[in-house]
Design a protein that fits this description.
Chain lengths: 196, 196
DNA sequence: CCTATTGACATACCGATGGTATGCCAATAG
DNA sequence: CTATTGGCATACCATCGGTATGTCAATAGG
């Protein structure tokens, strides 16, 4: 019988998505080093042939998963920030959104813990910059241009804040009381305010 | 002939120190996943039997190396802080010492990049707390008690500052201009000042 | 339509890796 | 002087990431 057009591309896309989904689940649960390719392809109901057809290897698969996670976090941050017009409120709500989003277990493990170690810090930084850190840099630049923040080099400040929030997210995910989030936020707010 | 007393313990200690030294060198250069036990024992001029006699496995060996690195950093921080009496100056000089010490390649790779991924964040946190973060917590507590810092929960602030400095150290190790260190320090100083 | 080609996998296999079980010999204990 | 144990070395194993090859259906070209 006549094959329906697009069968090829649809199947390819489906397999790739299943692999990404299962890999993300397993990486989030056991960590990068704690799960083997055999387990990933088994849970995806495919074989290693399929995996190596879609990805260059285990690090590349992890990178794809990481990019997906980062994209989600960045989307949440941008969405929260875009709800406001005032540059200062855009920054603060964006930071809060990042804090809450990054506390999720898979984000925490994949993006904050394994990411730098697996891909190397510079690669991880580049991906983070392309995803969510870019928003932070833009927000800070806008605030300096608007005269809200004192003129100063943006990069160091952005890294300090980014690192502070990453560590805070890791801590919050473990200490997990809602009161802790408010304490972190209070201190972070004062930090932001200090640069005003 | 009569064996000199203490031969046993001396040989044991010597083998252990060689293993730690070579493992630290290799972990720092290639990362935890980038070096195998075969290479470590070969460079140490022993066999895997010796390694597994002294350590429980590869993660345990890494943990021992990490503790050594952390102890050195903590010592540098404490030494710098102890040169001052004023609590505020103790904090600032301690932070500066941490920044410069953590920029060293082996510290950066072992303590800041691989540490959390290999041992898990909570384990890493516990070790860090026992080593250098304890000084930060103490300094902040003293400042609150002295009325220099506003009364507030210490833990969130300590984590924010620790994360900020860790990330800054990673960045400084790469951007490596001495001017960048001053920029980071200026922004960090304002952050500290903000909590005053 | 029919055929050639290619794309999306599956299968089989490889070297290297972390880890273990056992053997051996000299240093210590009695 | 003998028994024991500590400090390794040797030999071996299961599993890992990675590769080479085979297979079959979907597409492209005539």
């Amino acid at each position: 019988m006549a094959p329906e057009p697009g069968t090829r591309a649809r199947q390819r896309e489906r397999t790739r998505r299943v692999l990404l989904r299962e890999a993300r689940r397993l990486f989030a649960e056991h960590g990068y080093g704690g799960v083997g390719l055999a387990r990933i392809v088994a849970d995806s109901a495919v074989t290693k042939g399929a995996l190596y057809h879609h990805f260059e290897g285990k690090p590349d698969l992890f990178r794809a998963v990481l990019e997906e996670v980062q994209a989600e976090v960045a989307d949440a941050v941008a969405r929260a920030a875009d709800a406001h017009q005032d540059p200062w409120e855009r920054l603060t709500t964006g930071c809060r959104a990042f804090l809450t989003a990054s506390t999720a277990p898979d984000v925490r493990r994949i993006m904050l813990m394994d990411g730098p170690a697996v891909l190397g810090w510079s690669t991880w930084r580049a991906l983070d910059e392309a995803a969510s850190a870019r928003h932070l840099t833009e927000a800070l630049t806008d605030l300096v241009r608007a005269g809200v923040l004192r003129p100063q080099p943006i990069a160091p400040l952005a890294h300090l804040l980014s690192g502070a929030m990453n560590e805070a997210a890791l801590w919050l995910a473990e200490a997990d009381g809602p009161a802790d989030l408010e304490d972190v936020w209070a201190a972070l707010s004062r930090m932001l305010e200090s640069q005003r």
